[in-house]
Amino acid sequence: DAGVTQSPTHLIKTRGQQVTLRCSPKSGHDTVSWYQQALGQGPQFIFQYYEEEERQRGNFPDRFSGHQFPNYSSELNVNALLLGDSALYLCASSSLGRKIYGYTFGSGTRLTVV
Amino acid sequence: AQTVTQSQPEMSVQEAETVTLSCTYDTSESDYYLFWYKQPPSRQMILVIRQEAYKQQNATENRFSVNFQKAAKSFSLKISDSQLGDAAMYFCAYRSEILGNEKLTFGTGTRLTIIP
Known about the structure:
Chain A is built from no helices and 11 strands.
């Protein structure tokens, strides 16, 4: 039973560029959340997708956008990259309405903006 | 808004000994969930233990147990018989019970070192 899969594992982008990160949730999960983890910090919630809609959003600018596909996989897009966007981006999947221990995290995408 | 505070940036313990990691949180809600996650160098967040606020009994998972003090808003993690594989970053996290507010709010983490 595959867990959460994220791609790519590492990425280097230039300031001002755009980036797309991808996440495939654990089998049986229908909800995907994205978190940003700066170096030495705890993860910060970006947004959550369920039924292809953004269900909840954290305190991130509109440069951060996402999408969920009918197969429950998700993308995180960041436009006009800033140096401060350099971080580990974690995807977590769950099943809305099921028991709380349903959260499963991927190993993340390390984004470096130069 | 809820906040989670971990006041110990780093902790170390001798192998086979016991260590306690501290966590406090602030919320006005009465029903919620608390978690401890472990993040090894592989970067994946691994659930260690969870606690439902409505349960008075402290959660335990093998060598891991918590001391949940709801009135004091304290949620510490005790690791018994520490093993080298326990070395990692440990994050305390809060999740509201309110539907539509399922995000996790994390603390800043505690780096645990196991001394052989």
